[in-house]
Amino acid sequence: MTKQDALEVINQKQDLIIEVSDTIWDYAELSLLEKKSAAFYIQKLKDEGFDVQTPVAGMDTAFLGRVGSGRPIIGILAEYDALDGLSQQGGMAERRPIEAGKPGHGCHHHALGAGSFGAALAVKAYLESKPEGSGTLVFYGTPGEEGGAGKAFMARDGVFDELDIAFCWHPGSTNEVTTGTCNSSLQIEYKFTGVSAHAAGDPHLGRSALDAVELMNVGVQFLREHMIDSARIHYAITDAGGYSPNVVQPEAQVLYMVRSQKVGQALDLLKRLDKIAEGAALMTETTLKRRFIDGTSNTVPNFTLEKLLYDNFAQIGVPSYTEEEKALAAALIKTYENPRTVLPGFAANQDPEIGEYVKSKIADGRPLNDFLVPYYSSTAMRMGSTDVGDVSWICPTAQITTVTQASNSPGHSWQNVAIGNTSIAHKGVLCASRVLAGAAIDIYENPDIVAAAKAEWEKKLGGESYRCPIPADAVPIAVGDKM
Q1: Of the residues 95, 120, 263, 367, which has the fewest C-beta atoms closer than 10 A?
Q2: For residues 230 and 260, what is the distance between their CA atoms, to the nearest angstrom?
Q3: How far does Cα 347 stand from its chain's mean position?
Q4: Residue 247 has what DSSP assignment?
């Protein structure tokens, strides 16, 4: 089977790939609670002849689908978790939840998993046409990217150690190769327990857990002046102790997120955060309980693989759109409350020539970016975080973005949910399947690419070993799990 024959499998199986995308969109399950989504994927993988392993790394909603034998071993990563409160009817340019307060796929992880699944189907067909030992594909079902760090737990437990190369993609509003690095991220929960008392009659007998939370927050505000520029600290009070001001609050809880360019920097900053929490407990005579929620590492970019993905992207091309699809995207754009003022995509805001190219493409105000952003590789930092970073510390890793959303769509929005089960998203899913599959097949046909990617990867690491942000005793925490 040729590479082109393998890519034709995606066309033959496109109804199945779209079914997967739309089914996961319907399920819309939160991080580490993706029980129906995982079960659906597992059954589809078995139906297609993959050797399936589950659970993985202590997570019931994590799984592996394996095919082939020998090296190189390539991993294709899939996600399928949704976001809270973003329930939305599909194909509509007005806010209309299916069920108010319920989750929705505002980050298009339903599409992400389906696109990776489509790529895996094509690569499977290719490997099965070759002699035994020609290579192995592992399809990774990775839960809980949105605040669960499923890949980081899997990395801690050695799940990715066998890989030579890993590929992933992310739905978005541009067609481009993902480059640069990103912030590492840690989430830690602090619970203070004190003593309740009548706030007027016996205030001296009370020990306020809410006071401890507030004092911790004040301490962290002073810390901000004394940390590196690339670091960020965010927090949310998840339990303020109740609604009665005349009761000294006996319990209160705060969730912190610590970000920095490298995971070692974030871990060092976390030590200082812990000391502030301990100090707040001492000042208020409360007890402190700390729980590690999740952690992710910065990404290590790999230009060798990025160029390979770009070459496939350029050969395969990008989707075109009907007038009806453009009209839906344009209507959604009109609903943006705070439209972005930057150019679409990462590269256009980093490279002036690419910026001018993108400006020329969007000068007509097109609602869907139906062009491929020129090749660009960089070590510049994006401020967000992803657990794909942990995989990139274990083996050379690269990603792309394809259009599944209206131009400059706000992240984690109901507008993304609304477009997520339409033909616009379907086209982006199938495009991603083709690009990932094409790059993987190129590697099976030319294993020297692995050597080049690994040489670059080792140089970028500079002798530094992977420092997993997940402690050995930490366990995955699903959304809503109480301390």
Answers
A1: 95
A2: 6
A3: 19
A4: B
Distances (CA, A) of 253 to 32, 189, 237, 274, 464: 22, 7, 6, 14, 36
CA distance 299 to 303: 12
CATH code where residue 356 lies: 3.40.630.10
Say if pTM beats, i.e. exceeds, 0.85: yes
What does the DSSP assignment read for 170-214? EEESSBEEE-SEE-EEEEEEEEEE-B--BTTTSGGG-B-HHHHHH
Phi/psi class of residue 304: alpha, beta or left (left: φ > 0; alpha: ψ in -120 to 50)? alpha
Distance of CA 218 to the CA centre of its chain: 31
Tens of pLDDT, residue by residue over 413-444, are: 999 999 999 999 999 999 999 999 999 999 99
Listing DSSP states for 98-148 in one string gives: SSTT--B-TT-HHHHHHHHHHHHHHHHHHHHTS-TTSEEEEEEE---TTTT
Whether 242 and 365 map to the same domain: the answer is no
Number of Cβ atoms within 10 Å of the Cβ of 84: 18
**CA–CA dist 112, 219 (Å, integer):** 40
Residue 117 counted as domain residue: yes
Task: Note the pLDDT tens digit of each residue in 47-90.
Answer: 999 999 999 999 999 999 999 999 999 999 999 999 999 999 99
Domain of 216 in residue numbering reads as 184-295
Residue 177 domain-assigned?
Answer: yes
Is 481 domain-assigned?
no
Both structure tokens of 155: 């990395």
Q: Which two tokens stand for residue 352?
A: 């002036």
> 């003593």: which residue's tokens?
195
